[in-house]
Amino acid sequence: MKSLLSNIFSKKKKLSIEFCQNNLDRFLNKGTQASLGHLLRDQAIQYKEFECLSHCKECKQSPYAILNGEMLTADSMESLIKQVENKM
Fold it and tell me: What is the distance between the alpha carbons of residues 74 and 72, in angstroms, rounded to a whole number?
C-alpha cells in the first residue's frame, strides 16, 4: 500500500544541473540572468557551477548545461533555459 500512495503522491524529482563558469560568462547576459535566476530558485533544482566542465568545443560554440548527466545545448541562453523548464 505504501508504494501505491508513494506513486500517487510522489514528490517532484530533483533535477541536478551543472554549469560551466566559462560558458555562462560567454553567453549569459543581463536579460537572461534574471530568467536563469528565477529558474534556479525552484526547490526541485540543485545546481552547481564549475570553473570548467571539459567540454571546450561545445563551450565556445553555444550555451550548454549538464542536466542529470545529459548534455543540453542550445542556440541561445533563452532556448537553453526553456529546455530545462520543459524537462521539469
Answer: 7
